[in-house]
């Protein structure tokens, strides 16, 4: 009765806002934070739709859609109930898993870091450096003792 319902309520009230909305939505909308890639404006728009769909799928409230609803919400409106059931099943399955120790998690993350240390995209890294230097060229010039020197491409 109450214990099962309150446990389910706990997962729906506290976990969805903290895990998917703070972490996964950020990763979906900003894959360049995790992967060494460049994200263009078209890709950004598409990922925003995917992120919105994900947020709607994790929401416990019902979304009333009408003719004035944003198109990104209308695209996947018919699929949201199915996605919501997947999210509910996901949290139910997590609740059944045994806890992982901090030591095991740290060992796993260290191993993954070691295995993937050589996977690095130099062009993407250079693009990020150039974007930063372009944005702060005045400050870079001042820091190098060359006030007013602008950094130019090429």
From TrEMBL:
On whether Signal is a keyword of this UniProt record, the answer is yes
Enumerate the Pfam families for this protein: Plexin_cytopl
* Entry keyword annotation includes Endoplasmic reticulum: no
| InterPro entries in the record | Plexin, Plexin_cytoplasmic_RasGAP_dom, Rho_GTPase_activation_prot
Task: Tell me which residues make up the Plexin cytoplasmic RasGAP domain.
Answer: 18-140
GO BP of this protein: regulation of cell migration
One term under GO cellular component? semaphorin receptor complex
Q: What are the UniProt keywords, alphabetically?
A: Signal
What GO terms are given for molecular function? semaphorin receptor activity
Signal sequence segment: 1-20
Q: What is this protein called?
A: Plexin cytoplasmic RasGAP domain-containing protein
